[in-house]
Structures are given as structure tokens and as C-alpha cells.
Amino acid sequence: MTPIDPLVGQAVPPVSRLQAGRMAQPLLRGKEFHPFQTSGKQFVYLVPSAAVFELDAAASAILARLAEASLTREELVNGLSARFPASELRETLTELLRVQAIGEETQARIPVPKKTLPIGPPVGAAPGMPIPLTTMVLNVTNQCNLSCTYCYEYGEDKIVDTENGKKAKFMSEETARESVDFMLRESGPNRKAHLTFFGGETLMNLPVLKFAIPYARERAAEMGKEVDFSLTTNATLLRPDVIEFLAENRVGVTISIDGPQEVQDQFRVFHNGTGSYEMVAPKIRELLARHRSRPIGARVTLTSENLDVRKIFRHLRGEIGFWEVGFAPVTTAPNRKYAIAEQGFDTMLEQFQALAAEFLEYALENRHHGFSNVRDTLEEIHKGVSKAYPCGAGLGLMGVSTDGDVALCHRFAGSDAHKLGTVRDGIDRLVQIGFLEKHHIDDKTDCSQCWARPLCSGGCYHEAHTRYGDTAHANLHYCEWIRGWTDTCLKVYAELSVKNPRYLEQFDEEGENEASQVN
Amino acid sequence: MKHLRSINRKAGRIERHMVAKDAEAAEDVVALQQGPPPPAAPHIPLGCTLVFSPGWEADRSGGTAGLCTPVERDLFDCHEGCYWPAQVPDQLNHAQNWTAKCASAQKDWRNIDLVFP
Asked: What is the CATH number of the domain that holds A267?
């Protein structure tokens, strides 16, 4: 049987078959990859290994030929012999075959055996141990003092009945304590755990934060661990004493804000319909002035009526002074007025591309730009991430509801259909494994031919649930956007690798960013 | 590699992996002298098989008497599966009915008799 190469993720042909002249010459064809060019050079992004290679002229010529038709080695060498020496072409062919950029026509694609964690031991863990929890998102309340039209928790597409349901409106200290114990227990061999507070409006339950942070720190110290804290807030309750508390405790803060006043006030409104900009802007400025221990980011929800990404970025980064700004399209059923339609995604992509170009200019001069979407994608490209799952939900990240139910992530917290266990009784491993079995990229037929799947892996479960009523559905409504954006980031990455490779060294440090923006 | 340049970390890993494989392969050729002992083979009980394709293996003592299925069964697999040379009667000319009584080899192998020319 042909062995599966663990690194390339596909079956490797036996070496002898790569050597010419042993048998009737097999036809060669291009395998899965995405070619792109920048800085006058040719590159390929290989799928599914997620490796990026720069090609010389001979390698590009071979790939271009194979894009037209499958050819044998000799046909390729003869066809290109006017441009390149035959020996060089043969050498190039061998290299392309070995990195799996090309393969034999007859060689069937052998699927990589599906590995469903946490059955296998994660790196560094004892055999048989489940994958450790790195991030726990605690929904400390499901109450909110705003009533943003598009809200996935309260709006038309909500999953959990937050108003009339049986769920507690505020998390108790007791549940917070049990959650922290659960997190530290589930963090396994990891030295560091991330605790993110979320809502509703997180700061409406400040007492639980004031209890949980020192408690977590103390319990972690007893176990020789550390806890990193962060929260997401709408900024309405940032009083001076709250800001002081966050700064002192080094709590990372992400602010949900949509942009300048006319944009913010369109959807981010109080219950009586008045906009929130005038109230939050001075509070955010105060937070930025006082809280210097952690970089503070803005997180923008884009809607069909609010797609001027550059204008929003200028305002939040330049005028207000956020360290970084991240954008995400609104999660909604397709028939809502504010849902972004296909054309909207094109507009969004153009805007993102313009900002990415600006990011590149900054990066070439080693300056901080602050467009976090591009930075996050560059980091994944740099590491060669090839995902079996779109995100850490149900693996290294879990959400906890106000009454202590553990769900896939904070967006499903409180939903009985997406419950994995409770902080008291732990995770039901069979449910977790069942979830992972069902959501593996190999089972998303829609994604099987897409070159962007190592990074996208089908997209957000919550988005899929809202759009298609099924968490395992691929998010087909934004495929073109994902491919366009991945292509843009690959070009930025490749250009940096040519012109300022030292900039990319910052991504060598192991990811601390994972919990920085929960939204 | 001369024609491809590794750009990201994954590409670098693939390249190092290839270099290591080359080094391994190179050693294979040099090391025709005695190398380390081969790894112990797994213990597989002889003569037992999960599919109806019994082997021509020997039993524990090196004979055939102790096999859990008789060697005669091999004949059938050999001439049909055609992947091992076996002396079987000429079924085209002299022994057309050689396997006539053996509809299911699994049950009827005893009915395959010797043929004398």
C-alpha cells in the first residue's frame, strides 16, 4: 500500500515511479494548488499542505503547461527544451513531484485518514488524554443595555430564548467559581489558560468579574499555571473605576463598535432607539488613555448599509486611537435587510484589498498598521495552518452559559442542542467526539475542490447554523469572498517574504492571539 | 531544492523532510554492510487466515500436517487467482469437470480430486 506522508498529507508515490524510463511513461497533471504572482515573481500555495513556494521560470513554465493538458515527462521536457536545458527541466519535475504540486494522472487521490481529536493524544499530553482547553468564554450575563438590530443573541436570528427562557440572566459567583475550576482542570498540561468574559453586555455583571479574576489567578498559581484575561464590551459602562480595574488586572479589552457616529447609531442603539455613539466615544477615549497594559482593539460588524471599511478604519484607528481594528460581516439569515448580499461581499473585498495594500506599505517599513484581519491571516499563512475544523470551538475553545452549561462556543452558550456538558460534570466526550466526527472538513463535500479550504475549512458553525440551519453546512454564501481575501493575503505575505522577510519573524512566536478577539 | 524556494514555515518543513528522506535513501545504498538487526516481525499464527485464500505456509513445525486448513485448498486459489504458479489439471482438454463438484470452495474443497492422465 502506498504510504501516507504525514507532512504532505497525501500518498507519496514510490520513488522508483518518479524515475523516468522504468515503465510506460505516466501522464503528469497539476495537483491542487493556487498559483499567484507578486513582485514579478511566481508563487504557489499548495493544498492541502498549505505550503507556499516561490517558483523559478522552469517550474512556472511546467505548471503552466500542465494547466492546459496532462503530459508525460518526455513531452514536457521536449516541449520546453527551447527555453530550458533538459537536465534542468527533469530536476524541476522531480522537485514539483516531491512537494506534490504535480502528480501522476492515474494516481488516485488517496484521502488522508480522518483524525478526529480528541481520541488521539495531543502533542505533549499523556496518551489518551483529550485535547486541552486553551480558551474558555464565560457568558456572565445574557442581559444587554443596548439593543443592536442585528444582534445574534437578541435579534431575529437568536438561538436561545434569552428573555423568557429558563436560563439565569446573570451568572452567579458559584457558577463562575465552578467554571474557573473546570477551565483549569480541562487545561491539561498547558501552563497558560485564557479566560474571556462575554455577554450580553459583559460589564453588567461586574461583580462576577471582580470575583472570578482574583479567584482564577489564585487557583492557577496553586497549580503552577497562569491565566490571561480578556473581555468584549459595548463600552457603555466604562466608568473610571471600571477602567482602573481593567488596567490594573491587565484585562485585554475588545470594544464592539461600528465606526463614526452616523454608522454606529444606525444599528447600535439603546432600547428606545437612540444611538450609542455619543455615550461610548468619550468613554473609549478615556479607556485608551488610561489602560496601557494591553493593546485595545475594536471589532466592527459590517452590514449591507455599512460597508465603507476604509472610512470606519480611519475613524477608529486614526481618530479614536484603537491599537487595532477587526471587521466581520454580520451573521444573519439571508433575507434580513442588513444581510450582506453577493454584491456587498464584492464591495467589502475591494475595501479590504485597499486596506491590505496600506497594511503592506506599513509593514515594509516595519510600522504598525492596525488592520487585524490581515495580520491574523498572515500569521496562519506563515505557520502553514491546514485546518480540519474552521475554529477551535468544541476543541480548545468552549463557551459557558450563565447557568454553567458548556457549549461549542460563546455563540451557542445556553443552547441545549449544542451543549457539550456542564462545568460541574465536565464534558460528555461522546457528544464532543460525535460533533467532531460530523464537522470534519473531509465530510464537507462542498469544500473538497476548493483551494482555500486549509484556511477556511467551511467557516463559522454559528454562521452556518443561522444561514442554513445546520452547523455542519459549508458557508457557501461567502466562498468567493474567502478565496478573494485569501489570495490578497497570500500576495501580501509573499511580497513581504521577498522585500522584508524579517517582518514575518514576529509570527514565529507561538500564538498568543487566539483569544484576543471574541465576537 | 533549486527550482522551488520555501516561503512559509510549512514549506520549510517539507523541504527539511525531503532532505532527511534523501539522506536516509543515500545511507541505504552505502550501508550494504551489516546494519542493525531487522525489527522483530509481529507474531502471526500460521495457517490461520481471515479470508478464504489459504496460504501455502508451513505449520509451526515446518510441515503441513498442523495447518488449520488443508494445503489442497491452495490449488484452487492458485489456478484461479493466478498469482502463483501451481500444478493444476488441464481444464481445457483433459479435466474439464475437475471442479464440477466444487461449487463453493469453502464447503466443497474435499471434492476436488486428483487427476491421473
From this structure: 3.20.20.70
Q: Strand, coil or helix: what is B6?
A: strand
CB of B1 within 8 Å of a chain A CB? The answer is yes
State pLDDT tens for residues A151-199.
988 777 777 766 666 678 999 999 999 999 999 999 999 999 999 999 8
Domain that holds residue A350: 135-374+389-429
CB contact under 8 A, B6 and A53: yes
Give residue-wise pLDDT tens across range A433-453. 889 889 999 889 999 999 999
Cell output for A85: 536545458
Tell how far CA A155 is from the center of its chain: 24
- Nearest CA to A22 out of A118, A122, A104, A124 is that of A104
φ/ψ (deg, to 5) at A360: -60, -45
Residue A276 lies in a domain: yes
Interface predicted TM-score (ipTM): 0.82
Q: Which residues contact B17 (CB under 8 A, 6 or more apart)?
A: A5, A7
Distance CA A462, CA B15 (A): 38
Give dist(CA A97, CA A102) in Å, integer: 5
Q: Does A384 touch chain B (CB under 8 A)?
A: yes
CATH number at residue A21: 3.90.930
Please check whether residue B8 touches A, CB under 8 A.
Answer: yes
Nearest CA in chain B to A378: B8
Residue A48, preceding bond cis, omega within 30 degrees?
Answer: yes
Q: Is residue A460 part of a domain?
A: no
Chain B contact probe: residue of A8, A42, A99, A495 with most B CBs at under 10 A: A99
Residues A364 and A500 sit within 8 Å (Cβ to Cβ): yes
Q: Are the beta carbons of B86 and B109 closer than 8 angstroms? A: no
The reply to whether A91 falls in a domain is: yes
